Structures
1.
Amino acid sequence: MNKGTAIYPGSFDPPTNGHLDLIERGSKIFEELVVAILRNSEKSPMFSVAERLEMLKELTAPLKNVRLDTFDGLMVEYAKSIDAMCVLRGIRAISDYEYELQMALMNRKLEPTLETVFMMPADKYSYVSSRLVREVAQAGGPVRGLVPDVVEQKLREKLDPAYKLRDTNLIEVPRKTEKRRKKKA
Ligand code: PNS
């Protein structure tokens, strides 16, 4: 077994800055990091596996010890097939912990030799998730700074013309409150 290979499995629909942050951190501590996209996800994805692979390929190009792959079925079986000894997962907040703990323990039950290693992304990404990025983008909100530029561009292409991406990552607060305050006075 190659102790240097770790797998970073996920849906990456789409990849966020939080994912990229974790990939960069993981690539520094493992000899080889295999970013593995789950193919048979039950959810109806926004991006096809091929599109997600393409985005991740561009994002991880500078990281020479990072490899991309896709997998089906049990993650532990895939990890075994590539001789990975560790699974890398990110924990952003306490709310992630329960699900990640369950998954890590279930994976340990299925394959006791596979260790799960948790890392924390930079705190500025602690609230960023693919699901929220999709939700904000689908509603026409700005996602700059939450996803890499290439992903922002792909979101724009996918959702255009409904997606009117704003040039700022600040959401303007309506000035109604100000008016209401003046009326009351
Ligand atoms: O990015 P996500 O959606 O949180 O990733 C979840 C993922 C893909 C890591 C997880 O659902 C998974 O490993 N699925 C493969 C099927 C499997 O092995 N299930 C048992 C997990 S305990």
2.
Amino acid sequence: MSISKTIIVSNRLPIKITLNGSQIGYQNSEGGLATGLGSIYREGDNIWIGWPGAIINDESIQEAITEDLATKSLSPVFLTEEEINKYYEGFSNETLWPLFHYFPSYANYNDEQWCTYKTVNQKFADAVLRVLKTDDQIWVHDYQLMLVPQMIRDKAKNVKIGFFLHIPFPSFEVFRLLPWRKELLNGVVGADLIGFHTFDDSIYFINSCQRILGLPSNSNQLFINDKPIIVDAFPISIDFEKFNTLANDVLQKPHEENIIKRKGKAKLMLSVDRLDYSKGLINRLKAFEKLLEQHPQYIKKVVFVQLVVPSRDTVKQYSELKEQVDKLVSNINSKYSTLDWVPIHYFYRSFSIDLLAALYKTADIALVTPMRDGMNLVSKEFVACKSDETGVLILSEMAGASRELNDAIVINPNDSNKFVKALVQALEMPVDEQRHRMRSMRDIVSRFNIHHWVKLFMNRLEEVKVLQRKLSVR
Ligand code: ADQ
């Protein structure tokens, strides 16, 4: 009798590989997805397939890595430098990413990159097919692998396939700009269950499938030759307990004391982002400058800590953004700093999760104001760390998280006047009101945590198969 297994497929494996000559080092990823899926892929024969994050051409090293990773239920797909350039940095990050985040003028349409995207998606699908058995279920993740569901379906008609998109799905008018729109949609609808962060994203996807592929639909069902597939919202979350515990940990105390000493009597505003034009760094810095300009009473009364994790800085738009941020921060600081106060503390590097938790805990206000974001986990991490229930979250309505965290001060990041008003409202918010809002947001994040998200998606995948079987016997 065959025992069924779950196969997770994502661009990156939840591991970092370092190579020092022939010495191979492994470091587990602490990311939310790795934590959530950890409860699945480490069980029984389950497996996680993905790129190990380093370009390794030497076959004997590849074999050694494959063997080592097998003991951790991970299976690597090795990619060449050219594949990474064209499939990942090219088509995924220079075409799909800007288009799906409503930056169509940044999107680059390149046939060669598209061809490599197809080749690499086939590599991932082949890696799945090599280990696949009839009763297995497969969960494919994100925009880098949108063709994989159908590539698997072509060879395995009845297997259970789920697909989840971690970034927004754009409205039809934006999606239709893509020359390969039909092929991409056909790739995704190979899945039985297709998940997005928000209800709106799922509606946009159904709408594109109707208009581009001519697929019939009924509510959240699409029909592929009479077979129903389900499209739905599954808002991702974080490991609430991990952040809540970290923030309460006594080991955090020295960090906290340090931060509290540095900020003195000023209020601490915090932002944490990857370097990306979708994260709204420029609008946010301009709003902060406007606050100091229009409300000089806050000079020396507020400190803004902006953490930026380096990301994709070989891509032109990203290196230009970095220059713009550097310049803006320097202009604001040179204009407003005094001998004993600097308005913006700007860091361009990754921080340890301990320091991050201490910052979340001590911040009075978190500014999470992307121009567009699938979900945005920083908003939820901040809430999870506020165990004393104080603190204010200012959240962009363009982040998926705004659908759940509606006790935040929700703003449109393009509306600079309302942005400044929100900053003042947050700086002046009475503690009772902070507690009331924070309590309800903590309740949501603690209940709908990452473990809940994984369970919900997997249960739903099971249900779709039952539905399909029922309809086929009728
Ligand atoms: P990202 O675009 O990477 O994820 P986000 O959800 O905010 O965006 O996650 C970023 C992560 O990086 C957070 O866990 C945060 O703590 C960490 N981080 C940020 N700055 C850091 C720093 N300086 N040091 C250390 N860590 C830092 C994509 C989508 C999102 C979606 C997630 C999950 O773009 O919309 O929420 O996937 O689906």
